[in-house]
Amino acid sequence: MFPVKPKYNPSVTESIIFFIVIIGLISYFIVELGTDPHIPILLGIFILVAYGLIRQIPFKALEEAMITGAKSGMGAVFLFLLIGILISSWMISGTIPALINVGFSFIGGTWFYGIVFAITAIIGVSLGSSLTTTATIGVAFIGMGSAMDASMAITAGAIVSGAFFGDKMSPLSDTTNLASTIVGVDLFDHIKHISLTTIPAFIIAFILFVLLSPDQAVSTQGGNHYQAALDATNLIHWTSWIPLLILVICTIFKIPAFIALGISSSIATLLAGITSGLGWTEIWNIWFNGYTATTEFEPVNELLTKGGINSMLFTVSLVILALGFGGLLFVTGIIPSILAAFQEKLKKIRTIIVSTAATAIGVNVLIGEQYLSIMLTGETYKGVYQKAGLSKKALSRTLEDAGTVINPLVPWSVCGVFIADVLNVPVLTYLPFAFFCLISPIITIIFGGRSLKS
User: Fold this and answer.
1) DSSP-based three-state secondary structure for 306
2) CB-CB contact of 182 with 77 (8 Å)
3) What is the pTM for the complete model shown?
4) 71: exposed, middle or buried (Cβ count in 10 Å: 0-12, 13-18, 19+)
5) Could you tell me the residue ranges of all domains in the chain?
6) Of 241, 270, 334, 364, which sees the most CB atoms within 10 A?
7) Would you say 443 and 400 are in contact if contact means Cβ atoms under 8 Å apart?
């Protein structure tokens, strides 16, 4: 359970009403006012503190609950900062540009939607960001699809599916790191475990996209522009593959994620100092502010301009606020009283899995924020899984299968609004064709209790 003990025991009705009010407030600010999630969460913290004081909970106890909640995410915070460094170092060492370049080499043929899905997935894994993948490669594929008169709905569905496959499976992904850290599972053990449901979902989605693909071959001109611009960066060398190889070796030997990412980042930085032509002062600045590409092809500049510690501060601040918010939900007894009302019914493994998935999906729909879906659901169900003898990996996997991939299917969510804007395809239009996102939670529910015991 969340590492905060309740100081008050409200009735179930009071807890549900208060919870709905808080969630409604957050939803209104994110959906209607379009604010960053930090603002309504901070307002929610103010309301919960006021509620706690009214219920005669000492402010010291409320403060300690916020601090304890935030402390539970410190592992994720340090990992996020290191991921920012890893992305920037992989950029200047040519690792990410090389991966993207190889991805474009596979485009062509008649399996257009299948190819779009597969390449977007490859690039999504290399970048670790679904939104960056969608806003760059996704836009290019939408343009190709439009030129060949393909369905924009299916093309967008393939892009979203591939991008969120990458978001689930990449060690660079903040949601993947968050899901593993919040539950207390090693990053690479988490990725290995979610592959049990993710790979089948990928295969099924790929087959569906291939079957729906048009007959005519696709022009590779758009991809050629990307490849030419990537070559022009002079970042890609044979040494560019070494940081990736280092990470793979660390994965095989089950080296902790923080150490593995640190080693790969250091090797990538050393190689960049030799091959990129950048000075060491500039390289250390890139560690903090990220890499800025300056090619003559703007889409590639947008694709490669990222990384750095600074790029992760948005996520870090959200994690701290959300976990502090979670601590208050527990110390005021709101979540414990709701859980206690139905916890006794959560005894069967399949019921627990279905309930976890439904909660993760529900938070996505109500709040529209995938980070909160992962964090709140994860903290809520830790004790339930432990009591049922289920492994932590089972919880982290369900969080990803039903939390991460559902966000782009919600029209008012952060991801849904962003993707609809950059692809110019409404969420409800591409939703029926986002096969990977739709299939993932279904498979995790069907998979049920297999291989889930501690």
Assistant:
1) strand
2) no
3) 0.71
4) middle
5) 12-64+316-427, 75-312
6) 364
7) no
pLDDT the model gives residue 248: 76
The residues facing 162 across adjacent strands are none
At 349-407, the pLDDT tens digits run: 777 888 888 888 877 776 667 777 887 788 778 777 877 778 888 888 888 888 888 98
The helix (run of H) or strand (run of E) holding residue 168 is helix 152-169
Q: Cα dist. 327→33, 93, 166, 216 in Å?
A: 26, 41, 31, 56
Take residue 50 and report the two structure tokens written for it.
């006021």
Q: Residue 270 to residues 63, 146, 231, 258, 309: CA-CA distances in angstroms?
A: 43, 42, 21, 18, 18
Nearest Cα residue to 421 out of 147, 142, 158: 142
Both tokens of 210, joined, read: 């291939």
> What span, in angstroms and rounded, lies between the C-alpha atoms of 413 and 250?
36
Question: d(Cα 298, Cα 268) in Å, to the nearest integer?
Answer: 25
Amino acid symbol at 246: I
Task: Give the tokens for residue 419.
Answer: 């993707």
CB atoms within 10 A of CB 53: 12
CA 310 to mean position of chain CA atoms: 18
DSSP string, 196-241: HHHHHHHHHHHHHHHHHS-SSPPP-HHHHHHHHHHHHTT---GGGG
Helix axes 174-183, 74-92, angle to 10 degrees: 150
User: Mean pLDDT for the chain?
Assistant: 82
**Dist CA 221 CA 227 (whole Å):** 10
AA identity, residue 27: S
Which amino acid is residue 208, in one-letter code? Answer: L
> Which residue is associated with the tokens 């990410």?
96
* N-term to C-term CA, the chain: 16
- Note the pLDDT of residue 103: 65
User: Are the C-beta atoms of residues 393 and 189 closer than 8 Å to each other?
Assistant: yes
Cα–Cα distance measured from residue 68 to residue 63, given in angstroms and rounded to the nearest whole number: 9
Three-state secondary-structure class, residue 453 = strand
Please choose, from the candidates 202, 203, 240, 178, the residue with its C-alpha nearest in 3D space to the C-alpha of residue 375: 178
With contact defined as beta carbons under 8 Å apart, do 312 and 291 qualify?
no
Q: How many helices (H) and strands (E) does the chain have?
A: 24, 0
Q: How many other CB atoms sit within 10 Å of the CB of residue 275? A: 18
Residues 6 or more apart from 204 whose CB is under 8 A from it?
A: 435, 439
CA 439, CA 435: separation in Å to the nearest integer?
6
The DSSP call for residue 56 is T
Amino acid at 334: I
The span from the CA of 153 to the CA of 132, in Å, is 19
